[in-house]
Structure formats: structure tokens, C-alpha cells
Amino acid sequence: xxxxxxxxxxxxxxxxxxxxxxxxxxxxxxxxxxxxxxxxxxxxxxxxxxxxxxxxxxxxxxxxxxxxxxxxxxxxxxxxxxxxxxxxxxxxxxxxxxxxxxxxxxxxxxxxxxxxxxxxxxxxxxxxxxxxxxxxxxxxxxxxxxxxxxxxxxxxxxxxxxxxxxxxxxx
Length: 171
Description:
The structure is a single chain. By secondary structure, the chain is α+β, with helices and mostly antiparallel strands. It has a domain at 4-120: Gcn5-related N-acetyltransferase (GNAT) (Aminopeptidase). It has 5 helices and 8 strands, in the order ββαααβββαβαββ. The protein has an 8-stranded mixed β-sheet, sandwiched between helices. Strand 3 (62-68) and strand 4 form a beta hairpin. Helix 1 packs across helix 3.
């Protein structure tokens, strides 16, 4: 996938050399708190090396760095479903805490959603949001996703058992 240049940010492939910026933004408990168990905390150089290798593997999934003023500030991706879930893709995104509330996640999510629509590979775009992350719910709704379900007490994170919400957009 070619880089996507937006008003303030660029979405691009992860690259060797991104590790310091990735670690600087990802090694934050407030970032970790809103992400799945696959996102470690603390976030180490080994984690960054592994991520860049995984992100650039040749699969149907897409994993992109979010770059602002030449620096990595987060990531966004679409993990392709398999087998009976092949028409579904799970959307995920994160930003370093210093970049929250600046519109960067909205730009990134809209651009990735538009790209996935033009590719016509998937029918269902889906995102899971933890109950305490109202900003992410608002972001998904702004990008045309609708709340489909509440999965009660489905997430165990940071010592709490909470609900999660599934947001979808159909192509």
C-alpha cells in the first residue's frame, strides 16, 4: 500500500528506524489501557522490533504508522478475518497521549475506511471499544460506524471487568 498523505498526517508502512518513536509513544499505560492484550506494557525495543516485522508481513491485514511532522505518533490497522469471517476486518488504532484530541485519529480512521471501501475486499468493517473509551466511540460514529452490540463484562483490563461495544460499517 502506498503512503496516504492527509492534511496533517501521513499513513505509511512501518519501517526500520521507527522503533524509537514507536517506543516513545507506545510505552504509556494510558495508551495500553485502551488496547487489546496483544499490545504490551511496558513497551520495549524487542516489542517494537517484533511489531515492525509483523506489520510488514505479506498478509491481507494492513498495519500502518501514523506520522506527524516526520515522527511516528501512533498506528492504525485492519486485521483481516479468516475462514467464515473472511468478509470481516477488525479496525484498530492508537495515538500517543500527547496527540489525543487533535483530530489525527479522525483523519486516520476516515482515510483507512475510505481505502477499505475502494478495495472492496471486505463487506464488514468492525471495531471493538472498551466501555471507558467514549472518545473512541465518538470517533467511530463520526466516521460512519454504528454501535451494533454491547458485550457485557467481556473485557478484563487493568484490574477491572468492563463492557465492550462493537461498532460496524458495511460496504
